[in-house]
Amino acid sequence: MTIASFFIRASKAINNHPFCSGLLLLCTVSGGGVVALSESQSEAQRPNIEDHQPRKKKVVVLGTGWAATSFLKGLDASLYDVQVVSPRNYFAFTPLLPSVTCGTVEARSVVEPIRNIIKKSKGEIKFWEAECVKINAADKKVFCRSNIENLVGSGDFSLDYDFLVVSVGAQVNTFNTPGVKENCHFLKNVEDAQKIRLCVIDCLEKAVLPSQSEEEQRSNLHFVIVGGGPTGVEFAAELHDYIQEDLINLYPTVKDKVKITLIQSGDHILNMFDERISSFAEQKFRRDGIEVQTGCRVLSVNDKEITMKAKSTGAVSSVPHGLIIWSTGISTLPVIRDFMEEIGQVKRHVLATDEWLRVQGCKDVFAIGDCSSINQRKIMDDILDIFKAADKNNSGTLTVEEFAEVMDDIILRYPQVEYYLQKNHILDLRVLWNDPEGNERKEIDIEGFKRALSFADSQVKTLPATAQVAAQQGAYLASCFNHVDLCLDHPEGPRRFSGSGHHMFRPFRYKHFGQFAPLGGEQAAAELPGDWVSIGHSTQWLWYSVYASKQVSWRTRYLVVSDWTRKFIFGRDSSRV
């Protein structure tokens, strides 16, 4: 075969190839050699390797609060197509909001742009500054609306998802009290804290005007806090220090007319803390001149007076005010209420999730933070299945050894059992086996088994709506998302008593690391694990160190510590800016 005939046959074969569009033959015969043969393919007909790559699951996250930020920081974003939707493009360190209201800490020191946080993730995370207005679980779609002013074009859009993480938080609960929304300030976000700071200065500036009578001065300088929880107590303490340490020096003519009143519907303030802390806080506030009115319920609020009723006597009284801070708990946002109606959770106050933070009734929707609550399954609902699983020989009775084999799975699946054992200082499981007289038994039937574990369900408690809970939930859910493939083949959860196999993941377990309550005057109270209570100046310095270490970035950590230092050296700023 000649060289020419070889190239002619090769040309026909290549041109007839389905992926070939042309053939360029460059022939150079030199010393009896053939040099080059090259092929050109069109981009349109060349097979696209990316088409064969598996599509990443879409994860839509609603919110940039404690739960969402903790989830995003822990998530391996390279495994998913992650999109975040929130009306705020920053994360706020909310425990320091009372400090922002009085200038102890500046507003920008407690916020971190969310884009600074997500750019450090392993994969790409997209962020959209908008508010979710509707969740359509049936079509796996969320509808959003941008709140940016002077927006060119439409600000409405929708996002499809494979998994949805709802962490939108909650709003202040006004209990439908007349006049609260119109005449009270809330303390839920940075904007609220900034408004309160301006209003405090306004109250003093109005009081020193020459046209004000003494009665009008006292009205303007009466600061009322409704709610004796941690937020209300900390704000009262911050405000007292602000006035006594800084403002009195600037407004000496009204120093004897300033009054702070704390109203609490319960019998004590800080009633979620140890009784020793609650008692100390009340005594300190009274020494500082802060009036604490417990057992009072607010009936209505107008622009001049607040009306309340004493539970003990039934007496109704009205007092004038200059500023009211309403801090009485949280309620569900409208978008969550609509979503709850859609999925059949109408009678609940917050979204109900299972122990794996999955919204009940929605397979691919998860809820974390203040907008949700874990509906812990009770052990008595599964007591028959547990008994059958433990009774391997079907004898109708259990021995201590048989029960011990399933006890680890019981404790893992039903955390209330562990809480019950810890609360009653039970170290030996055979104690549960004793009869009502305390005598030890070798075997137990189903009725005795029910009696042995019936008290555990009394330890089922709703987790508090705190930053600590939300952050742990976000970290847990991120870990679950990161290990889906591994746990499909090797489940790490407890055994399924009502079926076969094991749960894919361990249920969420909250670990309490303690809580603080700053009380002013460089004193604080702390309730730490192990029933340890600490009160005093040393606890305040512990509070400083813990809150500085918990900042989400070195930038905010530096700014917060700098603000504290500035406060000690120069005092708080009272400029109205």
Notable traits:
four-stranded parallel sheet, globular, 34% helix, single chain, 28 strands, 577 residues, alpha/beta, five-stranded parallel sheet
Q: Any overview of this molecule?
A:
It is a single chain. The chain has 577 residues and is α/β, with parallel strands linked by helices. Helices cover 34% and strands 21% of the residues. The chain contains 18 helices and 28 strands. A five-stranded parallel β-sheet has the order 7-4-3-11-22. Strands 15-14-13-19 form a four-stranded parallel β-sheet. Strand 13, helix 8 (230-250) and strand 14 (259-264) form a beta-alpha-beta unit. The longest helix has 21 residues, at 230-250. The termini are far apart.
Q: Care to count the β-strands?
A: 28
The rounded Rg comes to: 32 Å
Helix content: 25-40%
Residue share in β-strands:
15-25%
Q: What spatial form do the alpha-carbon principal axes imply?
A: globular
Give the biggest sheet.
Answer: 5 strands, parallel
Count of alpha/pi helices:
18
Strand arrangement in the largest pleated sheet: 7-4-3-11-22
Mean pLDDT value: 89
Structural class: alpha/beta
**Stretches with pLDDT under 50, minimum 5 residues:** 1-47
How far is the N terminus from the C terminus? 93 Å
Characterize this entry briefly:
This protein has 18 helices and 28 strands.
Secondary structure topology:
Elements: H1 3-15, E1 22-26, E2 36-40, E3 57-62, H2 66-74, E4 80-86, E5 90-92, H3 97-101, E6 111-113, H4 114-118, E7 125-129, E8 131-136, E9 141-145, E10 156-160, E11 163-166, E12 171-172, H5 180-183, H6 190-207, H7 214-220, E13 222-226, H8 230-250, E14 259-264, H9 275-288, E15 291-294, E16 296-301, E17 305-310, E18 316-320, E19 323-326, E20 330-331, H10 334-342, E21 351-353, E22 365-367, E23 372-374, H11 383-390, E24 398-399, H12 400-413, H13 415-423, E25 443-444, H14 446-453, H15 467-482, H16 484-489, E26 515-520, E27 523-528, E28 532-536, H17 537-549, H18 554-570
Parallel strand pairs: 3-4, 3-11, 4-7, 11-22, 13-14, 13-19, 14-15, 21-23
Antiparallel strand pairs: 1-2, 5-6, 8-9, 9-10, 12-20, 16-17, 17-18, 24-25, 26-27, 27-28
